[in-house]
């Protein structure tokens, strides 16, 4: 009987032909789309075959522009030859998940190469709850519009109170050690201060005012302002919206993306990040008195006025861990 198949090499290896010299431990994007590393202390000369590893945990050079959070997504910045938390319109590619925390000043990080487990909650994948306030119309105010995998939250010029929200059906306990990640763009900020936009974690929602939600940690944007604020509330402590001293630039391009993280591993003082940089380190955002369960919340509202605004959510997700 003929052999239908024979193993050529062990898993975790892709064989490549060098078109030019490949340096020791050089990082590539492989034809399969996976990230690979030349697993050798020696360079490989042109026209020679070599093995690229695409599994295991590896130490990589890290950009010092951001802090890495364990379990977060990691990308290879092709032009800088360093790990970054995002990619831009370049040759950047997905690398894996951060296997350990790394401070902003750290020049190295540990990556679980090509690991990409599903998030515990992913708004653009899972179910949500929403109760719109205002006059809904096709092509106008109403549930968010789909743009590929993104969601557009929009207020219209109708002179009335309007509110549109997303609250995840799936929730997590306060002690789940959740890290929530949000990526957004603001094509058109709220035209007046009557507009409020909030994104974060909460135990519920409101048809009029996100501040009224009894347990939350939220990033908050006021209409007619580019300042990014943060606030929190549990059953014993309320932290009013506080300026993170960071801003966004309105627009719909990749360069206009803002990435926001909420790290709840320390319930006595939740840690928040804007574009990979910790903000408000001197402010305590406690969840110690919260009972949960908590979910992901996106909330856009205005009081009765003709104000408008557009906010695009490119990602809203969370992952949990034992510690």
What does this structure look like?
This protein has no helices and 24 strands. It is elongated, with a radius of gyration of 22 Å. Strands 10, 12, 13, 15, 20, 21, 22 and 24 form an 8-stranded antiparallel β-sheet that branches. A 7-stranded antiparallel β-sheet has the order 11-14-23-16-17-18-19, with no helix packed on it. By secondary structure, it is mainly β. It has 2 domains: 13-113, Virus Head Decoration Protein, Chain: A (Beta Barrel), CATH 2.40.300; 121-319, Jelly Rolls, CATH 2.60.120.200. Helix content is 0%, strand content 44%.
Layout of helices and strands:
Layout: E1 13-17, E2 27-29, E3 35-38, E4 49-53, E5 57-61, E6 73-77, E7 82-84, E8 93-98, E9 108-113, E10 121-122, E11 128-129, E12 145-147, E13 150-155, E14 160-168, E15 179-188, E16 195-202, E17 216-222, E18 227-233, E19 238-247, E20 258-263, E21 271-274, E22 277-279, E23 295-305, E24 309-319
Antiparallel strand pairs: 1-4, 2-3, 3-4, 5-9, 6-7, 6-8, 8-9, 10-24, 11-14, 12-13, 13-24, 14-23, 15-20, 15-24, 16-17, 16-23, 17-18, 18-19, 20-21, 21-22
Task: Summarize the model shown.
The protein is mainly beta and 323 residues long. The chain is built from no helices and 24 strands. It folds into two domains: 13-113, Beta Barrel (Virus Head Decoration Protein, Chain: A), CATH 2.40.300; 121-319, Jelly Rolls.
């Amino acid at each position: 009987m003929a052999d239908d198949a024979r193993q050529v090499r062990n898993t975790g290896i892709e064989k490549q032909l060098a078109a030019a010299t490949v340096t020791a431990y050089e990082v590539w994007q492989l034809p399969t789309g996976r990230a690979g590393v030349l697993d050798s202390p020696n360079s490989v000369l042109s026209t020679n075959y070599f093995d690229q590893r695409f599994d295991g945990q590896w130490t990589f050079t890290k950009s010092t522009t951001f802090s890495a959070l364990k379990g977060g997504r990691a990308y290879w910045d092709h032009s800088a030859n360093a790990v970054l938390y995002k990619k831009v319109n370049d040759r950047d590619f997905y690398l894996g998940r951060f296997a350990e925390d790394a401070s902003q000043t750290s020049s190295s990080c540990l990556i679980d190469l090509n690991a990409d487990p599903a998030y515990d909650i992913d708004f653009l994948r899972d179910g949500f709850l929403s109760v719109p306030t205002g006059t809904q119309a096709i092509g106008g105010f109403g549930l968010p519009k789909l743009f590929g995998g993104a969601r557009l939250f929009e207020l219209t010029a109708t002179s009335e109170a309007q509110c549109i929200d997303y609250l995840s059906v799936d929730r997590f306990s306060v002690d789940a050690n959740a890290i929530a990640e949000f990526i957004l763009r603001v094509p058109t900020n709220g035209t007046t201060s009557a507009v409020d936009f909030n994104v974060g974690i909460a135990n519920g929602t409101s048809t009029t005012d996100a501040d009224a939600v009894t347990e939350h940690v939220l990033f908050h944007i006021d209409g007619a302002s580019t300042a990014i604020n943060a606030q929190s509330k549990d059953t014993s402590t309320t932290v009013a919206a506080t300026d993170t001293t960071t801003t966004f630039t309105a627009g719909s391009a990749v360069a206009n993306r803002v990435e926001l993280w909420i790290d709840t591993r320390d319930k006595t003082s939740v840690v928040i990040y804007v574009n990979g940089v910790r903000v408000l380190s001197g402010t305590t955002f406690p969840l110690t008195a919260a009972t949960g369960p908590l979910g992901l919340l996106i909330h856009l509202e205005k009081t009765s006025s003709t104000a408008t605004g557009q906010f695009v959510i490119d990602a809203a997700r969370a992952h949990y861990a034992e510690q």
